[in-house]
## 1
Amino acid sequence: MEKIIFATGNKNKMIEIRAILSDLGVEILSQKEAGIHADVVENGTTFEENALIKATEIAKAAARMPEYQNTVVLADDSGLEIDYLNKEPGIYSARYMGEDTSYDIKNQALIDRLEGVPDEQRTARFVCAIAAAFPDGSHEVVRGTMEGRIGYEIIGENGFGYDPIFFLPEYGCTSAELSPEKKNELSHRGEGLRKMRAILSKKAENVNNK
């Protein structure tokens, strides 16, 4: 395993990914950095299905490029589930109210929809499914979660997306107020990437032992 391509163009996400997978000692490229331009239709019904769709489609594109013949492709699908709203926005988190709508507007809309709802009914979680497509055609999918509540206002500058309204009662702050290091330790993406890191390390070990 010489390189990993992660099927995203999100710079903030790539910062987290590289930090968490740094000890693999492998170059990690975003899909954009790898020069892969593919418009993948995420028509799955779960986070896992969408992650696997992205990973396998980008792996097909990578396989047609000589420099990426033996490259592992990772992809994630993540989002916010709010229990009171029947787990909305769920797999539509990025597309909620339109992909071009700012998260300030999305976050305020969700707060408004929960107006008058007490703390105990504001439970929510971030979910992140991560899929790996290997050069031999095999694949793996893992899931990470982070439990919390929806806050009453938008607070914090360190995160992105729905982080400023995702309140962590045990820390007394939103995930957008956590340091990057603490967020990687606690987050759904951090948990998912650590699970995937263990799988990648085992695969590499098996190859080296052959």
## 2
Amino acid sequence: MIELTGVAKSFGALRAVDGVDLKIQKGELFGLIGRNGAGKSTLFQLMLGLVSPDAGRVQVDGELVGGPRFQAVRRKLGYLPENVVLYDNLTGLETLHFFARLKGVKTAACKALLDQVGLSHAAAARKVREYSKGMRQRLGFAQALLGNPSLLFLDEPTNGLDPEGIREFYRILKTRQQAGTTIVITSHILAEIQQRVDRLAILHSGSIQAVGSVQTLRGKTNLPLSIEVHTHSEDVGPLQAALNRAPFGKLTIRERLIAFQCPRDAKMAAIAALSPLSDRIADLQIQEPSLEDVFLGYTGASA
């Protein structure tokens, strides 16, 4: 659905995007993650045709961005920028009507769309200047959904949403994805997208450091697993002795808990060491590295 080849973009002395190669498949929920200034928003602008690359090429739905046939593709795109700018003197419904006319979309579906994103009929009749940040974000999301776009670009889309709103937002995205929509999303809240994206790209200083599913990237970084053993008794001596004979990191012992780091390829060795003493174990928890851990591993940053 999207293909970038050798794409570069500078703003003066700033190299915002530096030789990016990327393919996003049709129907994917694809994440872009990186620190502020990593190049995420610039990549969005390049894929939307809002700015032109200094080098390389960007194709969306088989058409060259900026080419003679890209205007037809652009009508099938939905975009929610990081900072939503709306007209305060319009109501929510008037705002959506305005954007519908800009997109050449019929206004008849606007009320139902506002209701879908959690803006009631009463809220839709209020002036936007009376909206909270979360309500503005919902209205911006409704704008992006106008016309049932085949491709959605969402830049920090859950800013200002409460937990219920975030859950509903991703429910809508899942429904859209199941209908065939391709979705590209950025978020600073890595725990939020960790279980939701199909694949993601990690950006650092304008370059892509890695691309893949969360599980694939975990394997490539070879980060250790965190294992906690909860015991029935405070007598953890036998378990401690069994674990000390295996290739694990330093054991942390607190009352009825033993915690340690385990190399990924030693997980079965840990289970084998504990199995003969299973009658002493009340619970066993194995935790994979978080997406934040993976991100920090690829970017060379420290927590």
